[in-house]
Amino acid sequence: MKKKAVIFDMDGLMIDSERIVSECYIKLFAEIGKTMSLDFYKKLLGRPVGVVSKMLEDEYGDDFDWMAISERVRDMLDEVFRHEGVPLKPGLIDLLTYLKGEKYKTVIATSSYRKRVDTILRQSRLGGYFDGSVCGDEVVVGKPNPEIFLKACQKAECEPSEAYVLEDSEMGIETASAAGIDCIVVPDMKYPEDEYAKKACHIADSLYDVMEMIKNE
Fold first, then answer.
1. Residue 134: strand, helix, or coil
2. Distance CA 68, CA 64 (A)
3. What pLDDT, on a 0 to 100 scale, did the predictor assign at position 192?
4. Mean pLDDT computed over every residue of the chain
5. 27-84: per-residue pLDDT in tens?
6. Residue 51, SS3?
7. Angle of the 170-179 helix axis to the 147-156 helix axis, nearest 10
8. Which band of pLDDT confidence, cut at 50, 70 and 90, is reported for residue 143?
9. Element (H, E) at 56
């Protein structure tokens, strides 16, 4: 059955931001005499703010002001985007152009908050490619609860079985599986472990690969 919609995660899938963010966190933690390993950072990927908060408190203690660090990271990332532009993943524009030409509905579903998403879409000039978006502050329960992807299907006016989800993280795969939506994975900083990889319908090398897969469905 030909799909009707494609749901996009944002960070790590559309935008090559995760490496920049990881470098910022590692640098800022070192400045306050703490260590954040790249492996620990990878465990935070794709998770909602509340879950990230709990993981950081468990790792560094209840008195650790991680929100202050996170705000500084956001400021550093915003500065990079302002001066260097939003770094888009290779193949993104080609894929979006193809999908719009073939009349697929396209919706963003991201744990990031609305204000940040709107700013990035404006800076990157991507807004016109999408039929809508669902953000982390617009759902009651974040990933891996399927609410965000099910709301994205509503915006796309399709059933879960009529959509693809494009994700880069294990948490995204788990969320798509819970929603009953076929997930195409484009790994970013971490290749999914077997227990997650088997829940994906395809693991792609790039967004160009995603386009070829959809063309041949």
1. strand
2. 9
3. 92
4. 92
5. 888 888 888 888 888 888 767 667 788 888 888 887 778 778 888 888 888 888 888 9
6. helix
7. 60
8. confident
9. helix 49-60
Kindly state the tokens that stand for 12.
């790590």
pLDDT score recorded for residue 68:
84
DSSP state of 127: G
Give CA–CA dist 209/165, Å, rounded.
14
Alpha helices in 125-206 (DSSP H): 147-156, 170-179, 194-197
Locate 169 and state its tokens.
Answer: 């993280």
Instruction: Return the pLDDT at 162.
Output: 98
Q: Residue 189 corresponds to which amino acid? A: M
Q: What is d(CA 91, CA 73) in angstroms, rounded to the nearest whole number?
A: 27
High-pLDDT (> 90) share of the chain, %: 61
3 state SS of 97? helix
Q: HEC profile for 135-154?
A: CHHHCCCCCCCCHHHHHHHH
Q: How far apart are CA 107 and CA 116, in angstroms?
A: 16
Complete domains list, the chain, with CATH: 5-16+88-215 (3.40.50.1000), 18-84 (1.10.150)
d(CA 193, CA 182): 18
The full length of the chain comes to: 217
Which residues are within 8 A (CB) of 49 and not within 5 positions of it... i.e. 6 or more apart?
111, 136, 142
Look at 154 and 27; give whichever has higher pLDDT: 154
